[in-house]
Amino acid sequence: MPQQNQLSPQSKYYRDSAFTRLMLLITTLLRYPGVGYLHQAKFSEEHHNALQEVHDYLLAVAAEEGISIKCSVHTIHKDLAFLRSKGILGSQMYRWGYYLGTGVMNQQELTAALNALHSQAEYQRDVQIQELYNRLIRRLKGIESKEQLFYPVRAHLNRSIVETDPVKITETFSDRNLFDCLDVVETAITKGQKIRLNRKPSPWLDRPGESFEIWPLQLLYYDIAWYLIHETCENGHLAVSRIDRLEDRCTVLDTRGRSIAAQRSSLKLAHELLANGWGLFLGDSDEQRQELIGRLDMVEVIVRFFPRVMGFVAEGPLRHPSQRIEPHPPGPLNKQTQCVDYIVKLPPRSLREFGFWVYRFMGQAQVRSPEYLVEQHRQAAQQQASLYMENFQ
Q1: What are the strands of the beta sheet with 324-328, ordered from one edge?
Q2: With contact defined as beta carbons under 8 Å apart, do 370 and 301 qualify?
Q3: Helices (H), 86-145
Q4: CA 23, CA 29: separation in Å to the nearest integer?
Q5: pLDDT digits (tens, 9 = 90+) for 211-220
Q6: Domains of the chain: total
Q7: Which of 230, 279, 250, 243 has the alpha carbon at shortest distance from 164?
Q8: Per-residue model confidence as pLDDT tens digits over 100-112
Q9: Cis previous bond, 327, omega within 30
Q10: CB 375 within 8 A of CB 366
Q11: β-pair type (194-199, 210-222)
C-alpha cells in the first residue's frame, strides 16, 4: 500500500500562512481598488513604489481582521505573480494601481459613476446607457447601501427634445432616424470604418436630402439633442450632424477600417475647432485648414451687457478660452457698475451662433464691434419691435 505524503507541522504552517496571506491580498485589492497608486502625490513618477503601498495596505487590512502576519515586498510580488498565473489579475501593467477584474472603483467612486449614468439615461435619453443602468440596479439590488448608492445627488438636466428609443419611435409613428441603427455607427467609430449615411431634407427647407460618405468619430450630446461628429471621406472635412436629421440607414463601406490612431487624430482636430468657435458649426474645408494651422484671422467681437444680465455674463469666466470681461467703471461688480463689455475672438464661421446667444439678452445687450455685427443686431432688434407693433395694431 503506497504511503500517503504527510505534511510536517512546519510545512502545514507555511501552507496555511501563504493561503491566509493570499486571501488578505485579494481582500486588500477588493477593498482598496487602485492600491499601489492611491497616494501617488507623495512620490515622483521616478521613485513611486507601487508594491510598497500594496504591502502597507495589506498589513493594515490584516490588522483590521485581527490577523498577525509578516511578509516582505518581495513576497507580495510573488503572490501577485501567482494571481496573474491563475487569471485573477490581468496581464496588463499595474503601475497605476492594482484591482481585480473590472473592480476598479470603490463605493464612493461607483456612486459618482451611477449618478452620471442615471443622468445620461434619464435626461439625454441614451437607450444603451439606460439598459446598462438597469442591469446595474439588478446586480446591486442586494447590497445594504443601495438606497444611498442610487440616489441621484448630481444630474445634468439638459433634455433631449426628440425621442431616441427606436421602439418608442415605432410605437408613436414618429419619423424613423439614425437612432434605429446607432449600434452600427458606434461599431464603425471604434473600428474606424467608412460608412454611408443619408441626410433628411433640411428643416429650413433650404437643402434637399443627400447621401454622403464619412468616417464617424464621436457621438456628442449638446444642449437639446444628440449629434454625430464625422469626417468626410472625400476631402477630410469635419462636421457635426444632428442624429435625428439623418435617415435610419447606415451602410458600412469598408469593414477593415482605419486605425484608432487616425480616428483619435481627426477627433482631436474636431474638438480644437469646437473649442475655438461658438456652437457646433465647424465651417467649410478651406476655413478649417487655415484655422487649424493658425492662419485664419479671428474676429474680435465686443458686446455690452447692462445691469439686469451683466452679473450672469460676468459669472462665466470659462465660457470661451479667448474671452475678456471688462466692467465699467473698472473693478469688481457692485452697485456702481453700469455695464460690462464681453470681448471674445471667434472664427467667422461662429458669428451666427454667437449672435443667437446674444439675442437671448435682447433689450439688455448692445453689440459694439465689428460694425457689420452692430448693424445685424440693430436690424434684428427693429424686426422684433415691428412684430410687437403689428400685433398691437
Answers
A1: 324-328, 339-346, 299-305, 365-369
A2: yes
A3: 107-122, 127-139
A4: 10
A5: 999 999 999 9
A6: 4
A7: 243
A8: 877 778 778 888 8
A9: no
A10: no
A11: antiparallel
